[in-house]
Amino acid sequence: MPHDQTRSPNPPASGRRTFPFIDAIRGVASLVILAHHLVSYVPGADETLAAVPVMHHLVWWYGGLATQVFLVISGFVGGISLARATPEAADLGRLLLVRYLRLALPAVATLLFAIVLYAIVPPSWAAFPLFDEITAPGVLAHVAFLQDVLGYPSLLAGFWYLSIDWQCNAVLALLIIVQDAILRRMPGLSRFALSGSTPSRFALSHFAQGLAAVGLPMLVAVLSLFVWNGAVAHEIYATYFFGIVFLGTLAGLAVAGRILPAIFWAYVAAVAVAVVVQSRPHPAVALVAGVAIYLLAQRQPAATSRADSLLGWLGRISYSLFLVHYPTIWAVTSVARGIGGDTAAASWPSLMAAVAASLVAAVLLHRLVEVPTLAVVGRLKPRQAGAVSLSR
Q1: Is residue 290 part of a domain?
Q2: Structural domain that includes position 262
Q3: 151 phi and psi angles, rounded to 5 deg
């Protein structure tokens, strides 16, 4: 899939191709988020991990930034999928359905798992309740990824990400549909639609052609970077994060050969300016992640199978681990507290048991829910001969 001199951007389809390094990045990011939630939410964990002060400081203050990496990866995967689709509403609608099911089915299973844990762990054992408030309308709002928009408190740590991921995908699909409709009304530009921007048609005005294909989404992404990102009023909406997700989308489209790399680098420059103007770590982390993913994808050939490594394995269960680790940590540390009390001697065993239990729960969720979900959504994705895709 990278543009090199030995392989075309879209190699022949001889099986499902993926980028193993994406799994490795996911694996690392999921562990960082798990550690961040250990330090942030588990009573006594801050004192226990304070024995390693530098690590404690980094995890406490900056561990949550790993979600920016997930946002960029989501955009990259979306860009690869978009390279196989057409701007038609039906095709983009299928991609949105695929993304919703991909996110929602494991999330619903996690909610049920958390509710069961909440019911069986004695309240007196827990240092804090797993749920601030749980109601049927609130659960339904979570299933629809509208909990924050409708004003319901998030039931589990990290579930805000699901709503934002879904919103960003929906906004991107809508913008592409609107842009395609505009281009179709302009005979001189209709041939520049995303579906026609293949490498074989790049000529004198390649940059203009590619810019016409992604111009409207890029305009909204720039507004997101400089106007909405960092504004508290936009935190629960796609407008806050769209500029970060779109960085990954452009990387995916460029790697797939649907736009020129120059367009990706032009947007990278815009993100760099936003980093300087805002002086915030969030876009800076996204910038590093987006550039690294693009460069790695350009240099590492797409593979027909996933790499057999610890990080690859963690990457494969990373979404399940992202979902299930918080309620699992709560349950294990609550039981340890109920049995052994709040003694310092029990802190390390309790934390290690919580991490191990989270990994076991993630494996079970992955095998029992996520893998069957992937099989279902794989049959729903738009198909295009010779395309390279990611399975997640």
Answers
A1: yes
A2: 20-106+133-303
A3: 90, 15
Domains identified in the chain, total number: 1
Query: Would 383 be classed as within a structural domain?
Result: no
Whole-structure pTM value? 0.83
Closest of 318, 360, 364, 388 to residue 24, by C-alpha: 318
**Distances from the Cα of 39 to the Cαs of 28, 224, 347, 386, in angstroms?**
17, 31, 12, 46
- Which pLDDT tens digit goes with each residue over 39-84? 777 766 655 555 555 565 677 667 888 999 999 999 999 888 887 7
CB atoms within 10 A of CB 47: 11
- The reply to whether 258 falls in a domain is yes
Q: Which H or E element spans position 214?
A: helix 206-223
171 token code pair:
């906004």
Task: Work out the number of other CB atoms within 10 angstroms of the CB of residue 133.
Answer: 9
Question: Is 343 within the bounds of a domain?
Answer: no
User: For residues 183 and 190, is the Cβ–Cβ distance under 8 A?
Assistant: yes
Q: 348 is written with which tokens?
A: 């390390």
